Amino acid sequence: MHKLILVTGGTGYIGSHTVVELMNEGFDVVIIDNLSNSEKSVLDGIAKITGRRPYFEQFDLCDKERVHNFFKIYRKVGAIIHFAAYKAVGESVEKPLMYYQNNLISLMNLLQGMVDFNVHNLVFSSSCTVYGEPDELPVTEKAPIKLSTSPYGNTKQIAEEIISDTIKAHELLKAIALRYFNPIGAHPSALIGELPIGVPNNLVPFITQTASGIRDELKVFGNDYNTHDGTAIRDYINVVDLAKAHVVSVKRMLAEKTKSNFEIFNLGTGKGSSVLEIVNSFKKATGRDLNYKIVGRREGDTEAVYADTKLANEELGWKAEISLEDTLKSAWEWEKNIRNLK
Ligand code: UFG
Questions:
Q1: Where does the pLDDT of residue 2 fall: very low under 50, low under 70, confident under 90, or very high at 90 and above?
Q2: Which one of 130, 184, 208, 221 would you pick to mutate in the ligand 1 pocket, going by the greatest count of ligand atoms within 8 A of its CB?
Q3: Which residue of 8, 59, 193, 282 has the fewest CB atoms within a 10 Å radius of its CB?
Q4: Residue 86 CB partners (closer than 8 Å, separation 6+)
């Protein structure tokens, strides 16, 4: 019963790792993805790892009719994990309407489908960005939501509100929002990983591309923060650990073990690392040297954010297990694989 899980954005970075973990646990998976920021070949990687191919439907979730028709055909969806969204902070500042359109219309179409076709369980991909610059560290789920510094971040806040309101109006609906800290690394098989298009915005893809010679040097954005080495602190979590938290959340919903109709969990390691610590751990984990230069701060960056993971530990029985070094090594193995390096 209810073994079919719909994963939107399932060929994307976190989505593909989650599909693998779901399939490893015996779930059937149908992916909806418009391939706007991912490649169809990801399905081959998933099939190589799991020995099975997920169902795949390529269309845009902003197309309401297509969403409706999807639910007409796939009658047995037990839960939805909704990843599909734009996610580049800088781009969202330049193209706010594109972000609001895409990230919110798709969510509303999906929720409408859930209401119309009696699909009751939603896991939503949220972000620690909703906490802004937190007043207290580590950040708990009770920390106040701060005014968002980017349209991207705002879409996550508004999406949580849309979900919350919809659930209040439909008593059978349930949702779990997972607020990710900084997901990094790749599957240990090096068959799936992150595929940034163009110049990466995020730290670890920039590091691996610098180590592989695509970029000359890493720019470290600011060393005048009020932290032990002056560089900003984040909570870097392995993407496979993160993916497993989604499987646990789906199982919790299917087993009707949720404590309220809308639950929220932080997903991080609970440990903060500075940019320079990541650089040094990368060197140690891979034996590669890395050119870097300290430059000015990046606009909109926060000083320090890391998770209080107690709630996820206690309620989901989940915690991050893979070490930072193994995670950085996995990111490097993936980079070597896609660049055909030894
Ligand atoms: N950094 C560098 N050089 C780079 C890239 C990043 O020094 O080339 C630094 C950043 O300044 C920051 C840290 O590395 O201090 C991490 O930066 P990322 O871009 O990897 O991650 P962010 O914490 O900025 O972004 C993450 C998610 C976003 C989310 C944001 C808000 O990727 O989706 O957190 O909290 F919106």
A1: low
A2: 221
A3: 59
A4: 37, 92, 98, 99, 102, 103, 152, 155
